[in-house]
Each structure stands twice: as C-alpha cells, then as structure tokens.
Design brief:
alpha+beta; 4-stranded mixed beta sheet; about 170 residues; 4 strands; binds zinc ion; globular
C-alpha cells in the first residue's frame, strides 16, 4: 500500500457544510440575546436529518455548562435516546469553547462548523480565548497563570473504579 493510500484511509471524509444550518445557529444566538440568554446558538443535524436547536442558557438556568452546543447535544441525545451522535453535524454561531468541543468529541459527532471565532467572543467579554490558552499551556505556565489550580494527587485507591469497571459484565462501553 503506498503512502497516500494510508493517508486517505486515515482522513475521514468531511461532511460538507450547510450554510443554512450555520445561519440558523447565528439567528438562534441573536434570538437568545432578546430572550435573556447568552449570545450563542447551535444546531445539531442528526444522521437521519433531524434538526435540533439549542441556545445558551447559563444565566437562565444557573448552569455554567448550559452553552448552546451542550444544550443542543443534550436535546439531540434525549430525542434520539442515545449517547452516541455518530453521523451528526454540530453547527455553532461561535467557535466552540474547549468544553463544547470536548462534548462534541464525547458525542462522536462527525463535524463541527462555526461562524464567529474565539477572538470575536473575547471582544464581547467572554473567556473562550483565555480557556483555550489554559489548555494549550504546559503545567508550569498553567500554574503561573493563576486561572485555576490543577494537580495530580495520586491516592492508593485511584484505579479502584477502573478495576471495578473492567470486571463489570453488564457495563455499557462508551
Ligand atoms: Zn462552550
């Protein structure tokens, strides 16, 4: 097998962007502002073509994780009755923050498309760019940054949950 064939096998074919869904995510973000939500909107388009909307509900729900993308992913999973959104596409009005990007990874969506970016969000007073820097930092520079302490403190029981998980015959892998 030649080298290019190997590369082609390893690169997933991207689901093409649908501009109408991206515009919908942006309009949801604008509507969200008018309805006391944050200025963010998202749409999940499932493998079978269902379109599920979400907007930022952080201040409405007192839920710092209720970003538009997470809201849309939660609704999509609830509607489909699954934790696996393989084949779905996530459209967001703004570049997903690290939490939302990780949520999309956990949900196994195929592609993420966004309109504005982290710098646009930062210009409006949101911490997206700071958080991206936090993840990009080394442990040393992260500690010096003073944003939040994160430290590995291994206990004797640390892997006990994984030991229990490995031998559980009824486990559902995800
Ligand atoms: Zn987010």
């Amino acid at each position: 097998m030649d080298r290019n064939a190997v590369i082609n096998q390893s690169v997933r074919t991207a689901v093409p962007v649908d501009a109408a869904h991206l515009e919908k995510a942006v309009s949801l973000a604008v509507d969200s502002v008018a309805n006391a939500g944050g200025p963010f909107g998202a749409v999940v388009v499932t493998r079978d073509g269902r379109v599920i909307e979400g907007n930022n509900r952080v201040t409405q729900d007192n839920d710092p994780t209720a970003h538009a993308e997470v809201t849309a992913i939660r609704r999509a999973c609830a509607e489909l009755g699954t934790f696996d959104l393989s084949g779905a596409v996530l459209y967001s009005s703004c570049e997903p923050c690290p939490m939302c990007l990780a949520s999309a990874l956990w949900a196994r969506v195929d592609a993420v498309y966004f309109a504005a970016d982290r710098h646009d969000a930062a210009a409006a007073g949101f911490d997206d760019a700071v958080f991206y820097d936090f993840f990009a930092a080394t442990p040393e520079t992260r500690a010096a940054g003073g944003v939040m302490t994160v430290r590995h403190e291994r206990t004797g029981s640390a892997v006990a949950p994984f030991d229990a998980w490995r031998v559980l015959e009824t486990r559902i892998d995800y």
